[in-house]
Write a structure and sequence with these properties.
By secondary structure, this protein is an alpha/beta fold. Helices cover 20% and strands 27% of the residues. Its EC number is 2.3.1.89. Belongs to the transferase hexapeptide repeat family. GO terms for molecular function: tetrahydrodipicolinate N-acetyltransferase activity.
């Protein structure tokens, strides 16, 4: 095994849970390019790791990444934060990124204001999950994303709503209502989807591209549209089928 192959075999598994074996790359130049990119990312990640509340293993950080309040950040092994992502960690419960989490390019994670206003709750992302490019997670109300969850590009998660009952007071001055958002394990959230406050998306569910999810979604359910409605169910037991049929009949927000 050549030097490039040995370096690749040693370094890549530490920063990628699904790293490509060298023999599937086109040539040694491709492997060298990957190694250089990873090496630079590891170097950029060192200051973030040193400032974090807790970290283990290597951290890969892209160009132009902004991480503030790193003392509220907990990092698992092999976390990757891609170019120009922004993570504002200051929050009551902090930001927790599990093993192998990927934060895509130009993602914004904003639990709190940069200017000293009320701190938000924070964000937890489970192992193996990824957040697609240009996504926005406003974690003012706590956001929990489970294990092996895929968020496509331009996904928006908004765990708060503006209060607007009074007509004699500007909406901006009436404050906000924060409610937790939970996306359980093994979900796929399509490109451009929006998840609103108080929503729980059940394990193994799929949200179609462009959907606006305003109500909670049962496990193993495919939803889409504005507002999101049930499109189909993934395989269930007979008991689960009866329960979901009842939910479909009772809840207009889940009706097909």
């Amino acid at each position: 095994m050549g030097l490039i192959a040995r370096l690749h075999a040693r370094l890549i598994p530490q920063v990628s849970t699904d790293g490509e074996p060298l023999d599937r790359l086109l040539n040694d130049w491709d492997a060298l390019g990957v190694l250089l990119r990873v090496s630079m990312g590891v170097l950029r990640g060192l200051p973030v790791r040193l400032g974090a509340r807790h970290s283990k293993g290597l951290l890969l950080v892209g160009k132009g990444v902004t991480v503030t309040g790193a003392q509220h950040l907990t990092l698992g092994r092999g976390v990757k934060i891609e170019d120009h992502a922004e993570i504002q960690c200051r929050s009551h419960r902090g930001v927790v990124l599990g093993d192998g989490v990927t934060i895509g390019r130009n993602v914004s994670i904003r639990p709190s204001s940069y200017y000293g206003h009320e701190a938000g709750e924070g964000l937890t992302i489970g192992a193996g999950s990824c957040v697609g490019a240009l996504s926005w997670i406003g974690a003012s109300g706590h956001v929990t994303i489970g294990v092996d969850v895929m968020l496509g590009p331009r996904v928006t998660i908004l765990p708060e709503n503006h209060v607007f009952e009074r007509l004699d007071v500007p909406i901006k001055a009436q404050g906000v209502l924060r409610r937790r958002v939970v996306i359980e394990d093994d979900c796929w959230i399509g490109a451009g989807a929006t998840i609103l406050s108080g929503v729980r998306i059940g394990r193994g569910s799929i949200v179609a591209a462009g959907a606006v999810v305003a109500r909670s979604v049962p496990p193993r359910t495919v939803v889409g549209g504005i507002p999101a409605r049930v499109l189909k169910y993934r395989s269930q037991t007979e008991g689960e089928q009866r329960l979901l049929a009842a939910l479909k009949g009772q809840d207009p927000g889940l009706a097909a």
